[in-house]
Design brief:
The chain is mainly alpha-helical. 79% of the residues lie in helices and 0% in strands. It has seven helices and no strands.
């Protein structure tokens, strides 16, 4: 694939990630979005439907993961990188999702920072920002 086409496709895919973020309020059920925008340091978690929240976080993670893996494929064109990325995304999801569930069930007023960061890692494509340079430097060696 020509370099210019690769760039256009990666920019398009990155735009999809931006759109997911821009329209998060209308696309996903997540009462914690507004909660974490407020002074939540002394507040208890808002009322929420746990199953619906977890389902929407999983959906968002899936959407971000598919786009992220496509970006990695376009950039590196390596099945080994693709398989390793998919494995790492699945492993990351399982671990963080279990932790998120327990944090949602046990979080006390003012003790939400761990919940904030675990949830953030699940709903944002942060893992892509870790994998891109890692695979780039791996290929340079």
């Amino acid at each position: 694939m020509k370099k210019s086409i690769k760039i256009v496709v990666v920019v398009f895919l990155a735009s999809i990630l931006v759109l997911i973020r821009m329209f998060e309020d209308s696309l996903f059920y997540d009462p914690l979005l507004n909660f974490f925008k407020t002074n939540h340091s002394t507040q208890p978690l808002p009322e929420f439907d746990t199953l619906k929240l977890l389902g929407n976080i999983a959906l968002r993670f899936l959407m971000n993961t598919v786009v992220s893996i496509l970006i990695l494929w376009i950039i590196f064109r390596d099945k080994g990188i693709l398989k390793l990325s998919a494995f790492l995304y699945i492993l990351l999801f399982v671990i963080l999702f279990v932790v998120l569930y327990f944090l949602l069930q046990s979080s006390e007023a003012g003790q939400h920072m761990t919940l904030f960061y675990v949830r953030r890692f699940l709903i944002q494509p942060l893992f892509l920002l870790i994998l891109l340079p890692a695979f780039y430097f791996q290929q340079k060696k």
